[in-house]
Amino acid sequence: MSKLPNITTSIFTVMSKMAAEYNAINLSQGFPNFPVDEKLTDIVAQLAKEDVHQYTPMAGFPPLLNKIASLVQKSYNRTIQPETEILITAGATQGIYSSIQALVGSGDEVIILDPSYDSYEPNVLLSGGIPVRIPLNDDYTPNWDLIEKGCNDNTKMIVITNPHNPTGKILSMTDIERLESILAKFPKIILLSDEVYEYITFEQKHLSIHTRPALRNRAIITASFGKSFHITGWKIGYVVAPEHLMKEIKKVHQFLVFSVNSISQAAISQYLDYVSVEEISPFYQQKRDYFQKLLSNSRFELMPCEGTYFQVVSYKAISDENDVDFCKRLIIEHGVAAIPISTFYENGKDLRLIRFCFAKDNATLEEAARRLCAI
């Protein structure tokens, strides 16, 4: 008997497989195709000859834990304790899984805001919890009245994603204040804030939960070195949580992976001495602006992109097809792979919007845009 009877192959796998079959340009799955910083690869090459190949402590490589504490202090002016409030994870997704498994029990309700990253619901189901999926407004702002109505004595957790995947939306100060107001009325609800794109924001920085004293003692925050340093294949992220929550998360982590790849932890620990996270946003903003310029003469309508490395576009002026069929035809007939937004909704809501990843080298973006502008 399946524990996830309604879960099928992810849309990312489907579209990437089709892209390979039809030799299409893959702008679907969110991974960069440009080289990693040479300084980081040099560090890895040197470390390969050193004694960093055995288990690290369960919570993480101590020097890296200290570096993360310093990074959070510098970025958000928050002091955290490396030994008790940080956990290195095998990607942010494992951190999310461990957090939900540790804190959500049978019959607990977890509010998820749609469109949503596709790992949230399966994690809740595997914990015995009940996913309560509440749609964002059509402009991808939260409907706080609907969210508040969804809260009750059985609500154990609310999951937010900021900056938001797949839409690139950033929560405003009004949004954060309304969230605080709701959680003040429901003091037992835990907040899980997925902030993996925290350093990929543009005209305005996102408002991290790290900066909200009213929420920090009941919030789990996930982050991703894979996203920040375009090393997605390393699968390395981290979780920050107050000690009383982290104790429970570590219990699951201990028996899930125990500890994370040692050489990657040592490499990132050294790399943080050389890299500035402040350089990440300008780099990706240049990518976003260039991709938007390339598509300016197409029939696609570009939606606002405030963060992440994804550009959502409307194809209403091109076709009346549903977004899944349109994306398949886009691959087969035009050689470009995208992701249909309806697959991020529980009810498959289709606004004829699709998502492109612009974390690609300029030559890839130029050829993709040439094909898209010809439609």
Automatic annotation (TrEMBL):
Keyword check for Transcription: no
Record Gene3D superfamilies: Aspartate Aminotransferase, domain 1 (3.90.1150.10), Type I PLP-dependent aspartate aminotransferase-like (Major domain) (3.40.640.10)
CDD domains xrefs: AAT_like
Named cofactor requirement(s): pyridoxal 5'-phosphate
Pfam families linked: Aminotran_1_2 (PF00155)
Domain Aminotransferase class I/classII large: 24-372
Keywords: Aminotransferase, Pyridoxal phosphate, Transferase
Domain of life per record: Bacteria
GO molecular function, one term: transaminase activity
Keyword Transferase: yes
PANTHER family according to UniProt: FI04487P
Full protein name: Methionine aminotransferase
